[in-house]
Design goal:
about 300 residues; 2 domains; about 70% helix; single chain; alpha+beta; elongated; Alpha-Beta Plaits
Amino acid sequence: MKFRFFVGEAVDSLVRNWVMSVAAIVTVLVSMFVLGIGAFIFVNLQNATSGVRSKLEIEVFIRNTASPDQISQLGDQIKAMPEVRSVNFVSKEEAMNRLRESMKGHEDVLDALSGNPLPPSYEIYLKDPSQIDGVAGRFYNNPIVDNDTGTHNGVRTGGETTDRVLQVTHYILIGGAGFVALLAVASILLISNTIRLSIFARRREVEIMRLVGATNWFIRWPFIMEGVFTGLVGATGAMVLFLLVQNFFVDKIINEMPFLGADTVPTFWLLLFIIIGGGLLGSLGSGLALRRFLKI
């Protein structure tokens, strides 16, 4: 009976202050929708960067003057390194074939060359991509590696590009988190103002309940439920909007552009996260209002 009374009081209060209630619900909706989109982007950025790092390789170019024994010896040294997952030798002929394939339609440029100027190389894949700089450094001073004087250009890694991608991703995630935090604060304040209006409109009713011996929690519960309802309704709207966006846009993009490497986020856990987040925003907003404006 008490629960039904609390629910009825909360709903009546939301209807009476419908303008503020709608504003609070919409703000929660936007906050949780942006949070859901942010979670989707975060998961896919993490997957993309992990995929890129797992494919990182070290290319060690060998001088054309190196003897077959020296090349073979270098290969044995690489295979003996504990950090190495696999190694692939690329001969001069294979390097030229790869170049021809990449320049398909413009082979006349290569035909004009006298001989094959491309050096042989080793492609090295590591067990842990974070060790790429340390392993690459072992070839900087090797006499048969094709480094120009004073440089390390005979050893190439994709580490710098990946680090830039990770840095940009880091800034994007920070900016997105800041934006969501601002929306969350706005949601809490709007819900708090809605509850405050409810308290003000029912101040005489609150006084009467005090006089007849109602407990503090009996007076508080309708306002708490009002805040939680506001958050849950906004989160439900965000959940519906997210599902629509995922079904009509995200899934279509994933299917038509698989080269992006995007993937869907587990829907159940994401929607549960949105609902819990909305309820939490509502409870924080009602808690703030009760603490500041209901002195019981």
